[in-house]
């Protein structure tokens, strides 16, 4: 199934009117870099340094439902059957249910924020003071999209991937396709960008909803799992020195607090 032919076919979010201009990828299993949104480098900003983001401030940075080290639940999440976990515990047989849980939870959080993530408030897919992700359209051109449109594209694409039995086999005896690791990495990279935008642009609303412990827990689990299974690229998490990803600093803070006892640098 192609990416956009099935918008609205499955999963939670109602399609929005601004999905009409979607580019059309050629395949549901295109390589990780094809049709990939990417980062438009911008000049470093001039002027006084930006104030510290709220998500890096106490007590919000420590607010998490699960206390202690997330590695323990990465190694064996309590809601994953141990036999299933053992059976799928390799890169080629990835516990797709967990990826589905990340997607579903993130989608629910974003669904609550859509009234704030408007074209007016978020004209670009921002994730740091000097960082705006761009989308590659069907002409292979980098284009800026409003964050809401960008996130719609990402979430619809991920939903279709998770729903596609040729990408995520759900029946016993079906092999995982050779492109599976790169597909999962690509999904991870895109979901990371959605997290990064929410932290950068909507953390005040998360606080207003008193959801920061839940959101931090979800993100910490996402990071710990991604690091454990090498799905996270540090360059995606941290960005460049001139265009850092805001949540890259959160990763460092949580590592320093022992929340993420992972070996990745
Ligand atoms: Zn937004």
From TrEMBL:
SMART domains: Mob1_phocein. The keyword Metal-binding applies. It holds the Pfam family Mob1_phocein. Zn(2+) binds at residues 117, 122, 197, 202. InterPro entries: MOB_kinase_act_fam, MOB_kinase_act_sf. Keywords: Metal-binding, Zinc. Residues 16-45 have a biased composition (Polar residues). This is Maintenance of ploidy protein mob2. It comes from Mycena chlorophos (Agaric fungus).
